[in-house]
Amino acid sequence: MSKISYRSLFDLTGQVAVVTGGAGILGQHFCAGLAESGAKVAVVDLQEAKAIELAKKIRDDYSNQAIGIGCDVSKSESVQAMVEQVISEFGEINILHNNAAGKSEDLNAFFASFEDYSLEQWRQIMSVNLDGMFLVAQAIGKQMVTQGKGGSIIQTASIYGVIAPDRRIYDGSFYLGRQIDSPAVYSASKSGVIGLTKYLAAYWADQKIRVNTLTPGGVESGQNSEFKQKYSARVPLARMAKPTEMVGALLYLASKASSYVTGQNIIVDGGLTTW
Ligand SMILES: NC(=O)c1ccc[n+]([C@@H]2O[C@H](COP(=O)([O-])OP(=O)(O)OC[C@H]3O[C@@H](n4cnc5c(N)ncnc54)[C@H](O)[C@@H]3O)[C@@H](O)[C@H]2O)c1
C-alpha cells in the first residue's frame, strides 16, 4: 500500500473560496477557517464595510490574500459584479460557500403569525434565502464549468429546514430584546436549499462539481438563559452550538477530504434531529 497523507487532503492552498454572508456570526468563522487552511477568501456580504474589515483581519491573521466585497445576493447584477471582481482579483473560483440569509428590518412583519404573514414579507425572505442561493450558485457554477477543473459548493440550510421548530420552547425565551420565534418562510426557504443542493449535485456531477448542504443547529449568540435551557433540554449533547463548531464540517466539504461526497446534508446539531 502506498503511503498517502490524509491530513493534506484538508489543505486548501491555492484554492479560491467565496463565502456569502461572510461577515455574519457564522460567516466570519467560515472565512477564517478557509483562510487558515490556505484558501484565498472573498468575504461577500450586504454589509460592505464589515466585509472589508473582516478581509483585512484575515490578511493580518493568516498572511493570506482576502478581499471584502459588498453584494446583494438577491440581485442578479450585484452577483454578476461580485463574481467579476473575484475573478479579476484571484483569476478563478474553486469553492463557493452559499451562506447568506436575510432577516427583515421590520421584525414585527418577520415574526408575524402564519395566519397574518404578508406575501410581501414572504417574498422578501425568499429573495435572499432561496433566490440568492440560486443566483450565486448559477453565476459561480457557470464559472466553475468554464474553468473545467471541478469545484465544491456548500450551501447553509438549518435544522428548521429539516424538522419543525418546537413551539413549546419559545415561551419566556428572548433574543434581541424580543420573544423568540421562527417563521414558516425560514423553514420553507431552508428546505428549498436542501432540494437545490441535491438537484445541483446530480446536475453538475459530470463537471466534477460537488454540491453539499451544511445544516447548523441552534448557535449560542445572546439568547436568554430560559431559551438556552429549554433548547438544550431537547439536544442529546445538552447544549447549544458555538459558532466555531460549524467550521470543521465546512472544511471537510470544501476539501479533497470529501472527494466522494456529493448531494449530502451534514447536520451539525448536537444530535437534535436524532430523536
Ligand atoms: N446562527 C444560527 O443559530 C443558525 C442556525 C441554523 C442555520 N443558520 C444559517 O447559517 C447561516 C449564517 O447565519 P448567521 O447566524 O451567521 O447569521 P447572520 O445574520 O449573523 O449572518 C448572515 C449574513 O448574511 C448577510 N446578508 C443578509 N442579506 C444579504 C443579502 N441580500 N446579500 C448578501 N448578504 C446578505 C448579513 O449581512 C449577515 O452578515 C444562515 O444561512 C443561517 O440561516 C444559522
Q: Per the principal axes of the C-alpha atoms, what is the gross shape?
A: globular
What is the number of helical segments per DSSP (H or I, 4+ residues)?
A: 9
Q: So what's the CATH class?
A: Alpha Beta
Q: Structural class, judged by helices and strands?
A: alpha/beta
Layout: helices, strands, pairs:
Blueprint: E1 16-20, H1 27-36, E2 40-45, H2 48-62, E3 66-70, H3 76-90, E4 95-98, H4 107-110, H5 119-129, H6 131-147, E5 151-156, E6 174-175, E7 178-179, H7 184-203, E8 209-216, H8 225-232, H9 247-254, E9 265-268
The chain binds nicotinamide-adenine-dinucleotide.
Brief digest:
By secondary structure, the protein is of the alpha/beta class. The protein is built from nine helices and nine strands.
